[in-house]
Design brief:
Blueprint (H helix, E strand, L loop, with lengths): L1 E5 L5 H9 L4 E5 L3 H10 L4 E2 L3 H5 L5 E4 L6 H10 L4 E3 L7 H11 L6 E2 L8 H4 L10 E7 L3 H4 L4 H4 L6 H5 L1 H12 L3 E9 L11 E8 L4 E7 L6 E8 L2 E7 L5 H4 L2 H14 L6 H17 L8
Helix pairs in contact: 1-12, 4-5, 5-13, 10-13
Length: about 300
């Protein structure tokens, strides 16, 4: 098997490659010389190409696509035109216009497009379930520090108009878990954001999204981007009490956070041609997040 890594714009493809290397020959493309050098040091047998077109010409069996969000739609169009299955590292869109464009591209072959938070496949969540009929309300709490952006790392991710900022890039983790549990029939009921600690950010470090499912179940996603610990908690309220699961990195973050299982699910897509994450769910998640991003005014709460 040959897998192409199209872009190394975030940390995810570096982690992905660690799992993929045990299953496939790796070919890659990345314009940034520092990221390219790092990848070559970690995977000295990987072949690099000059651009995405040349990468696709190597006839890979599947593609892991990780480019800055504004360029994802154009890149995905080339991948799908080559009739290839594709893992689009999250988030696939950060603004309503980006979502409109990538949704139109994915419509060509939605069954060959997989885009998800890795937490969907984390063992602590994947093996956990609730009775949908008993659910009264749900809450997801995302704790993931974003101070690296305040230092100037990957400024496009912190830009609300490009990568979506903390609200989108970290909020997707909580919303992914809730949609995976309750389904894609969800809408945004409200959002508030604040900048409490990391004053060098262009976006926020704290956010809360209010949600509503079509059957009336309310939900909340809390995003804490100024934190000393990384964890992801889902709480489901029923008449009997509160059922809770917590996803944490543990001694092996690749396993504990679902990175390894996500790549294994992607390899199943490569073999079968059918994504384990329906595009209808991905689109619903992105619709809520991009609507939230679009509705937020310039931050009034700064410290």
């Amino acid at each position: 098997m040959r897998i192409a890594l199209a872009g190394l714009a975030t940390s995810h493809p570096f982690t992905d490659a660690g799992t993929l290397a045990g299953h496939a020959e790796l070919v890659a493309w990345e314009d940034d010389p520092e990221r390219r050098a790092r990848f070559q040091a970690e995977h000295p047998t990987a072949r690099f190409t000059r651009d995405l077109t040349e990468l696709l010409a190597t006839e890979p069996d599947g593609v892991v696509l990780t480019v800055p969000t504004p360029g994802l739609a154009d890149a995905l169009a080339l991948v799908l035109a080559a009739d290839l299955p594709c893992l689009v590292n999250k988030p696939a869109a950060a603004t309503p216009e980006q979502l409109r464009r990538i949704d139109g591209v994915a419509a060509v072959a939605p069954h060959r497009v997989m885009s998800t938070s890795v937490l969907r496949f984390a063992p602590a969540f994947r093996d956990w379930s609730v009775d949908r009929d008993d659910v009264l309300a749900v809450r997801a709490t995302v704790r993931h520090d974003v101070s690296l952006w305040a230092s100037g790392y990957n400024p496009w991710q912190d830009d609300p108009a490009a990568g979506g900022g903390t609200l989108v890039t970290m909020g997707i983790h909580g919303l992914e878990l809730l949609v995976s549990l309750l389904g894609p029939e969800v809408r945004l009921a409200g959002v508030t954001t604040a900048l409490r600690q990391h004053t060098g950010l262009r976006s926020e470090d704290t956010a809360v999204l209010a949600l509503s499912w079509d059957d009336g179940v309310p939900g909340t996603v809390e995003v804490i981007g100024a934190t000393d610990v990384e964890s992801y908690t889902v709480a489901v309220h029923t008449r009997a009490g509160v059922a809770t699961t917590v996803i944490e990195p543990g001694p092996d973050p690749v396993e504990g956070l679902g990175y390894r299982a996500t790549i294994e699910a992607f390899l199943d897509l490569v073999r079968t041609g059918t994504s384990p994450v329906p595009w209808t769910q991905t689109r619903a998640i992105l619709d809520v997040l991009t609507a939230a991003r679009d509705s937020t005014a310039p931050l009034a709460h700064r410290r």
